[in-house]
């Protein structure tokens, strides 16, 4: 059954929200259509007989009521659900990006809280500098797949630049109401009284926080940010996309690759490989990652770049094929997995884990004011979410892109082995994708715009992949 698209012009009005986490109980504020705003303000007595707005002395009760009306409008328009809690089982393990947590255990529950609050959360923003070629200063209503892609790339960058197991210091101060499980005592970092140890810990904390802030700044909504919306929209022009268009998970994978290539001066020793024909070709990855030794140097082998591997796939026809669920779970159990950009129909999400038959995700559909990342010590709180959310596997759209990260050649070899094992768990005749010896067409880095406009890749044999035309474009999946 075809999915009916809502007209994009119904999503064009920007939304203004408090930049803090929605878990803290703030109400959204925004700009509904003029006729709606006129009626609501007339009913509240906020417009004078001369047509001018009320003076600043508007009664507090009327202001609160107007805020609630505007909040209700934005809630309906952009699909954000202000649930304060997500229900989690205390008996079933919760898996997130290669780590497993048993929430009945106080220490593990606290570790999960910290780990989740450490993930970078990139959402709709409003009030940023105008995007080239358009009059848009917000991505509300059309940019959620780009935001999901940003979160996927951000997770890879955090693994690339920060120590294993790093957590954001402020993630320790989480609300006791962000999950429906009993609160446990918080963990504290035990530091001896020895001055030298304190000094080392202080230095490491300072260095990691500086690096964390730098990574966040790369995703700011400013033309200078290498992975901000302005740069991603610009990189999408070669695929025929522009600001305000819908983006699919496959095109976003290629946009991220081009953005990382363009930011080599900012992010050194990192490359992105996008799989083609549902196959990761080992020789192509090796060619991308191997760096020839400089002239006159001697060494056992060429230096190796770290790599983010992005695999666009389709897990069924109109809906998710349930036989792939076990395989998706196995992939999310891998430490090398950095998440999945996909969602439910017309509503992009960033999947980071699962519990039982539900996926754990971060939702970009929360519109916040733009943060000026050019300022020193800009606030970080709006880039982290303390509210885990879940969605049933059955509601997952079949079009998605799966991400992996390998820091070294050894890690890439382990990745190939672990992913191949996870893929073999599928009960379908053919796996979601394959890891194959040899080279693919154009080294696997062809532009998405080179593909037929209505093509979706499927594995037809174990040894050879080809394209099959279908009426379902991977890029028809996206957005609210």
UniProtKB/TrEMBL annotation:
SUPFAM superfamilies: Cysteine proteinases. It is found in: Cytoplasm. Residues 1-65 are annotated as: Disordered. The keyword Glycoprotein does not apply. It is an enzyme of class 3 (hydrolase). Residues 111-417 form the Peptidase C54 catalytic domain. Its EC number is 3.4.22.-. InterPro entries: Papain-like_cys_pep_sf, Peptidase_C54, Peptidase_C54_cat. The keyword Hydrolase applies. Its main location: cytoplasm. GO terms for biological process: aggrephagy; autophagosome assembly; mitophagy; piecemeal microautophagy of the nucleus; protein processing; protein transport. GO terms for molecular function: cysteine-type endopeptidase activity; protein-phosphatidylethanolamide deconjugating activity. It catalyses: [protein]-C-terminal L-amino acid-glycyl-phosphatidylethanolamide + H2O = [protein]-C-terminal L-amino acid-glycine + a 1,2-diacyl-sn-glycero-3-phosphoethanolamine; [protein]-C-terminal L-amino acid-glycyl-phosphatidylserine + H2O = [protein]-C-terminal L-amino acid-glycine + a 1,2-diacyl-sn-glycero-3-phospho-L-serine. It comes from the Eukaryota. Residues 10-24, 40-50 have a biased composition (Polar residues). GO terms for cellular component: cytoplasm. Keywords: Autophagy, Cytoplasm, Hydrolase, Protease, Protein transport, Thiol protease, Transport. PANTHER family: CYSTEINE PROTEASE ATG4, CYSTEINE PROTEASE ATG4D. Belongs to the peptidase C54 family. Cysteine protease that plays a key role in autophagy by mediating both proteolytic activation and delipidation of ATG8 family proteins. This is Cysteine protease. The gene is ATG4D.
């Amino acid at each position: 059954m075809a999915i009916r698209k809502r007209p994009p012009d119904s999503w064009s009005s920007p939304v203004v929200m408090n930049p803090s986490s929605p878990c803290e109980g703030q109400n959204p504020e925004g700009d509904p259509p003029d006729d709606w705003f006129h009626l609501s303000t007339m009913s509240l007595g906020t417009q004078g007989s001369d047509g001018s707005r009320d003076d600043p002395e508007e009664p507090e009760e009327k202001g609160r009521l107007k805020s609630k009306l505007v909040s209700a409008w934005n809630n309906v328009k952009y699909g954000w659900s202000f649930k304060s809690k997500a229900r989690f089982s205390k008996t079933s393990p919760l898996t997130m990006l290669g780590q497993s947590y048993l929430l009945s255990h106080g220490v593990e529950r606290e570790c999960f809280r910290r780990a989740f609050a450490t993930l970078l959360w990139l959402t709709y923003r409003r009030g940023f500098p105008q995007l080239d070629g358009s009059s848009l200063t917000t991505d509300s209503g059309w940019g959620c797949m780009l935001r999901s892609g940003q979160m996927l790339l951000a997770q890879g960058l955090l693994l690339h630049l920060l120590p294993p197991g790093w957590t954001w210091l402020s993630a320790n101060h989480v609300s006791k109401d962000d999950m429906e499980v009993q609160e446990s005592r918080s963990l504290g970092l035990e530091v001896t009284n020895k001055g030298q140890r304190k000094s080392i810990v202080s230095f490491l904390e300072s260095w990691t926080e500086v690096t964390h802030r730098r990574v966040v700044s790369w995703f700011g909504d400013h033309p200078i940010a290498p992975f901000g919306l302005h740069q991603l929209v610009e990189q999408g022009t070669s695929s025929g996309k522009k600001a305000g268009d819908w983006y699919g998970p496959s095109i976003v994978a290629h946009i991220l690759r081009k953005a990382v290539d363009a930011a080599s001066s900012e992010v050194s020793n990192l490359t992105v490989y996008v799989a083609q024909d549902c196959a990761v070709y080992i020789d192509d990855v090796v060619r991308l990652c191997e760096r020839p030794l400089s002239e006159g140097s001697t060494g056992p082998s060429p230096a190796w770049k770290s790599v983010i591997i992005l695999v666009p796939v389709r897990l069924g026809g109109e809906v998710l094929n349930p036989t792939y669920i076990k395989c998706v779970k196995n992939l999310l159990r891998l430490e090398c997995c950095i998440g999945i950009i996909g969602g439910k129909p017309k509503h992009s999400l960033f999947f980071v884990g699962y519990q039982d038959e539900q996926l754990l995700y971060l939702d970009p559909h929360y519109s916040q004011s733009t943060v000026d990342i050019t300022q020193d010590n800009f606030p970080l709180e709006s880039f982290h979410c303390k509210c885990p959310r879940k969605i049933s596997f059955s509601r997952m759209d079949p079009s998605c892109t799966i991400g992996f990260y390998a820091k070294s050649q050894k890690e890439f070899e382990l990745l190939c082995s672990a992913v191949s094992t996870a893929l073999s768990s599928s009960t379908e005749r053919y796996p979601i994708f394959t890891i194959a010896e040899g080279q693919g067409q154009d080294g696997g880095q062809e532009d998405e715009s080179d593909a037929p406009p209505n093509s979706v890749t499927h594995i037809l044999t174990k040894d050879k992949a080809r394209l099959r035309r279908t009426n379902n474009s991977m890029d028809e999946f996206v957005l609210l």
